[in-house]
Amino acid sequence: MMRIADRWFETKRIDDRITLLWEPHVARLDQCNMWHVRGRDSDLLVDAGMGISSLKSAMAALLNKPLIVVATHSHTDHVGSLHEFEHRLVHPLEAHSLATPATYPVLCSCHWPGTSRANIEAQGYEVPDVMIDAYPHEGFDPFTFRPRGTQATRLIDEGDVVDLGDTAFEVLHLPGHSPGSIGLWEKNTGTLFSGDAIYDGPLLDKIGGANVTDYQRTMHRLKNLPVEVVHGGHDPSFGRARMLELAEDYLRRSEQG
After folding, report:
1. What are the start-end ranges of the H helices in the chain?
2. What are the residue ranges spanned by the domains of the chain?
3. Domain 10-255: top CATH class
4. pTM of the full structure
5. pLDDT band at 256, cuts 50/70/90?
């Protein structure tokens, strides 16, 4: 039997306004980065993890003003706790799947539909039979866990703005990993919250809803963006030089077939 985790979430202060949260007991494939950004009038949370344990409770010390939660896309590892929050923003192309989550045991890869596990392993990930290495509490059953759906309270698309009062993030539509994948771009600091459009790990373009041609267009777009730092949906943050390497590597591999 798996052990019970002392705590489900970990946090790391990145600077005086950005805090990273993650779920250390979730396998790398589903270990989403959740980014809390302090603003003057409102705070921002980018993505919401698996929903295995209460994210809102875990980040209570950070919640002292209205919170805007943006899902970069609707995959389970990014929206699991979205229902806990009042203001839930997502791209229109992701709204339906946000409201109608998977009904199979998402934490048990041997029960994933079709060839999805094999496809993901072929793209560079190790996929364990069970996607967690501890339980959040006594009596938790990974086989019966199901993600909870929710309705978006605002739909956001290319060019929309998420305003925190003293700074604002422009919405960039960055499809490829999923049809409605988005990033949040803070022009004055060169900061990009990229979701799964780009991160420093295996990029998944052979899963349901992914599109290689769209992903290639997104990579060309990112190459022309004056980025200083990328905070991705997975794995460590990186700067412009690494972003260009990752984009070029993806384009080279995808064009070779």
Report:
1. 55-58, 76-79, 95-99, 116-122, 212-223, 240-255
2. 10-255
3. alpha beta
4. 0.97
5. confident
